[in-house]
Every structure is written in C-alpha cells, then in structure tokens.
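call fold(seq) -> tokens
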Amino acid sequence: MGAFFSSLGRTITAGVVVLIVIVLAVGGLTDGVRTSDFFIARWLHVMAGVMWIGLLWYFNFVQTPSMPKIPDDQKPAVSKVIAPAALFWFRWSALATVILGLLLAWMNHYLVPALTLTKGVHAIGIGMWLGLIMAYNVWMIIWPNQKKALGIVTVSPEEKAAAAKLAGMTSRINTMLSIPMLFCMVAQSHGGL
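ret:
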C-alpha cells in the first residue's frame, strides 16, 4: 500500500477512480449534471482554485514564517528545490483557475454581465475581478520577483532583497484578496449577496 501512495500519479489516478466509484454507487450523475456542458469545467475550475489558493496560503502561513527558523545551511533546500516547484504549480494553477472561470462564465452567458458588475451576478463579478487582479499579481509581480529572490535570475544582493520584499508583500496582498474573493464566489452560487 505504501508503494502505491509513494507515486503522486498513482495517487491522483486513485482519486479519480474513487470519484467514479462514488458517482456509480449513488446511482450515476443527476440529470442536471449529466446534461450540463460545463460540469467538468466547473469541477476543474474548483480543483485548480484549491491548488492555487492552497499554495498561496502555504507560502503565507507555512513557508515564509518558517524561513527565519531554518538554519542557514538548510535554507537552500527550500530556495533551490521546494520554492521553485511550489511556484511552478502556484502560477499554472492560477492561470488554469482564471481560464476555466472565464470559460464557465462564457458558457453560462454571464461573462460580460459579471465583468461589468451587473446586478444579479455582481458577487461573482467582484470575485472574478479579485481573481484577475490576483492572477496578474502572480504572473507580473510575484513570479518575476521570486526568480530574482531565489537566484533563478542573477541580480545584485540589493536587487535580490528588494525583489524578495516586493514578492512577499504582493503575496500578502493576494492572501488578503483571497478572503473576499472566495466569499464572493461561494455567495453567488449559494445566494449570499
């Protein structure tokens, strides 16, 4: 059993198999899900969003506060191995979340009304705008500056320190924005706003 779960690919495959078993055990998909063109896109959107915000919170609640406690000789393990891998999944899950979210809004005919904050879809529109701002921050501020801070791009020590500070502050801003963004996304689909 341990060998099976030592592979991320096998673990993900097992998760999909468990999902299929559950769907079949409860009698298959409901008519609404079965006839819905966007059900899979919605599920993928949520999965990508969980990865994105999960990594955002990992950076802010775990990695960043832990770095001062790590002995200097052990910090390269984080900055050279863990952080670049986490940032890879972080930025691509952000992009996938945004693309799938925009696709869902288009498929459901509320893309323009949501982006223009039209009454009735204004909650999800606010959530969409917050998500777009956050994704911009990931790709245009956090990632370019993390490349400098982690030494992926060679810069002066002063520029490296400034880049780390800007990336960290922008990540904190995204953490702050994730709270109302998540609320708006849930509120729209559950009648909260």
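Residues 58 and 64 are 8 Å apart (CA to CA).
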